[in-house]
Amino acid sequence: MKRRNQCKTTSFCGLILIIYLTISTVFPVHAMHADQKAMIRPPETVTGTVKDQKGQPIPGVSVKIEHTKNGTVTDNDGHFSLKNVPAEATLVISYIGYIEQHVKVTRENISIVLLENVNVLDQVVVVGYGTQKKSDVTGSISSVPKERLQNLPVTNVLQAMQGSVAGVNISTSSSAPGSSPAFYIRGLHSITASNNPLIVLDGIPFSGTYNDINTTDIQSIDVLKDASATAIYGTRGSNGVVLITTKRGKTGKPVVAYSTWFGLENITNAAKPMSGAQYAQKNLDYTAQTNKTPAPVPNQFEKENYDKGIETDWLKEISQQGYIQNHELSISGGTEDVKYYVSGNYTKEKGVLKGYQYNRISVRSNLDAKINPWLKMGTNLFFTNNNQDGGQVNLYMATVMSPYGSLYNAKGDYEIYPMNPEQLYTNPLLGLYSPTKRLLRTLSGNAYAEVTPEFLKGFKYRLNAAYTFKPDRAADYTGRKAGDLLGTATLSNGVDGGGEGQNWLIENIFGYQKAFGKHNIDITGLYSSQKDESFRSTINANTFINDMLDYNNIGAGQKQTTSSRYTASMLVSQMLRINYAYDSRYLLTLTARRDGYSGFGDANKYGTFPSVALGWNIAKESFLKDSKLVNELKLRLSYGISGNQGVDPYNTLSTLSTTPYIYDGVTTIGVTPSRIGNKNLKWESTKGFNAAVDFSILSNRITGSLEAYSTNTYDLLLSRKIPNITGYTTILDNVGKTSNKGFEASITSTNIEKKNFTWQTNFNFSLNRNKIISLYGDGKDDIVNGLFIGKSLRAVYDYKLAGVWQTGDNFAIDPSAKPGDLKFEDLNGDGKINSLDRTYLGTRLPSYIAGLTNTFKYKQFTLNIFIQTTQGVLKPNTIYDYRDQVGRINLPASYTYWTPENKSDTRPSLAYTNSRQYTYPVNGSFTRIKDVTLSYDFAKEKLNKLKISNLRVYVSGRNLATFTNWEGWDPEADPYQYFDNQKSSFYPLVRNFVFGINIGLL
């Protein structure tokens, strides 16, 4: 290999590489290793058995002769047989999750016991464009416990992650089938741009939905949190990065695995409406307080049923027994050269509210092939079909509907206005008459080729190519039975405002690793290009002759409108990362990424995002090397810059919109200015500092990480006001700053470890303080949008409640008030209550969140209990905010109100109209037993006789109990969804119980 030193230019070295690869492909050379030359004794056949510490055989263990390619794997009984083993050779025995062993061959039959790798810092984690031993990681990276990815009745990867990783806030605003939680990492950075973290699936940025990723297919989830870890993703890294790696095939016989679970769902935390008697009494109290004629019911249809004693339980009418089922079948295996993993999944969920359903079908194929010693190739392919078709009932309408309202009309159809002549509130079941189509489909594939030339040890080149296509479809129709006398249809190739999307990505990744003495250097380089496209077309039509064909013949509508939209954007990137380690004690990571995004102005299309991180493995120092107390101890420091390009394309351009106008008596289409562009627009940037300590003590009985961070986001993408003389009122610009400071703790302890019983605890804690540093440069708050300098985002800005006005009080500061009205504090001291007395009361963001998992194992039984808590939340409780509608609708059974006899000091009278639009902010903190799972694993030695590799049965419950002072529906839900009564997106929290089986066939 001396010829490498003669390469004077890059092109000459490249020519040598091409010639070498070509020759070695056509005329493969089988070089003889040094140890093979030394084989002078007759080869022998060596047999043996590999077991774990409990004496259980381990199938699939790699057994190789050191420094050769001669090897095999253990069978299902842990046995192996290896031919042509020279005398006194050394066998290398390795298996994921166990400590690698080197065994000298001294006899023909040997027995090997593998020890579990409990050394946390020796675990391998995904870091983006590669992997690292956790002991060498300098950035903030957390891994989701593997048990959170199995045995849970969830349809969404975020539901499995919730509460399990410090610094990751996942909030389930709706339990509707097919819905997805909202989540963010280490606080909110942006005001108008996206706060969503970047999802990277098998090394490729993912553009599908979270429902596309089947949790059973997932091998690991790693979360990048600090700027050092996320800066390698440039303009998309400031909100954090979630790296998801799916399962791959392993060397060995084909393994067929089947898992299934089935369970029932029921409503929990229900805010039941008043019964007929309560409703009638409420109406009598209301008429008394408003000096109206006493009446137990206000409307004609109600009176007829009231006189007959006919009541309707509307919550019962819209509800049904929900269920959920999941089936997963996979086959994996391979040889030393070709490995495969193929899976298929079917999920079906029937919601607890009528019309809500979710069906998912997905298939995945992962293939890895070793073409020759220097070339590997592989693919990752998957297709997912998410179906949420069906008209849906309206929960809000059911809770406010009179129990004496009419469910059906004379024809036997649902009565459109059950409280006729009241026509503001319609029958909550009308949505069942409105067919709806909602299909979200994702077809994604990526392929790679990896070259590791033998003449250049440590060098690696990888080419990634990926393509994703999303042919979504949405349609709905509202006809006569649902109250639309003309019929209205909509048909679109996009769902929820999206469109038919596609994107492609090409990545060139270079790597070089070299160890010399106590020094180790690892270099990674990247050049990539990506394009995203979206096209949406929509057809609206109304005035149909009948409702027979709904949206399937939209051309039958007499009045039609059409619209379409196309967007495209490009991203070109270069990245360089250098990892250096000295004696595995002193660590340094340097990263720089340069991104060019077509969505920004010509002057600012490119930006560079650098970072630096330091690590010190203190436990490897001589003064701690033999410590019996400290097993591992590492300090980490990092600082860097990452970006957020989260705005739609074309915001730098001035745009026009079409409008009809009349010219010379003829209607013509013209154009008018609609938006002023900003050619200087660029991405938001976040500077972040992170300090952390990783530790393991008491013979690895207690391990964990403690981290503190501070980030500052600047050049926020905000719409600021401009003079009207320009012809516009606002322009999107880079103004404003936010900051986030926080502390995180992740601790795992083995509390008891006996022969047949263990008890392990995982605890994570996250505290975040969010603040707006500046807005538009004028030092003023933006009260209209709830933005206050020096305060947190998602502010609660309202009056400060002082109680309820009582008879005999002095009404001087609020002359319009009367007994039973809410009383507010005069905060500015001007002697009157008005809008100037509103103030910042708090934030809907939590002060801290935490998760606690206890795992108990007794022989083959495992009990897992997970508890989550969210504390310090102040949020409006809309269950109390009915304004002036209380005399027309029903109220929750738990609703209390002021009367002359019951002088409440916290709740107003029924006559209170809430003219100041008070939002009733209250403490929304809660603690929840999120899930409990009891499983049993059958002994492997008995299963092997039945040709079964593993068998587990389990029962699991989710959302079992919630402890909170919150009244009404779930405290975690979005309060503003409750009044979305056009098409209710508000859905109750669901409790479910499932039974499941996991089985592997030999």
Q: Could you walk me through the main structural features you see in this protein, from its secondary elements to its overall organization?
A:
The chain is globular, with a radius of gyration of 33 Å. The relative contact order is 0.11. The strands form eleven sheets. It has a 24-stranded antiparallel sheet that branches. Strands 10-15-16-13-14 form a five-stranded mixed sheet. Strands 3-2-5-6 form a four-stranded antiparallel sheet, with no helix packed on it. It is mainly β and 1002 residues long.
Itemize the secondary structure elements and their pairings:
Blueprint (H helix, E strand, L loop, with lengths): L9 H17 L7 H4 L6 E8 L10 E4 L5 E3 L5 E7 L4 E5 L6 E4 L4 E5 L10 E3 L4 E3 L7 E3 L13 H5 L6 E4 L10 E4 L12 E4 L2 E2 L12 E7 L2 H4 L10 E6 L5 E16 L8 H14 L10 H9 L5 H5 L3 E13 L3 E13 L6 E16 L2 E13 L7 H6 L35 E16 L7 E12 L2 E6 L9 E5 L7 E17 L2 E24 L16 E24 L3 E12 L8 E12 L12 E15 L10 E9 L2 E10 L8 E14 L4 E13 L2 E5 L8 E5 L2 E17 L3 E18 L20 E4 L2 E4 L17 E3 L14 E5 L4 E11 L2 E11 L2 E3 L44 E3 L2 E12 L2 H5 L3 E16 L26 E12 L1
Parallel strand pairs: 1-7, 13-16
Antiparallel strand pairs: 1-4, 2-3, 2-5, 5-6, 8-9, 10-15, 11-12, 13-14, 15-16, 17-18, 17-50, 18-19, 19-20, 20-21, 21-22, 22-23, 22-24, 23-26, 24-25, 25-27, 26-27, 27-28, 28-29, 29-30, 30-31, 31-34, 32-33, 34-35, 35-38, 36-37, 38-39, 39-44, 40-43, 41-42, 44-45, 45-48, 46-47, 48-49, 49-50
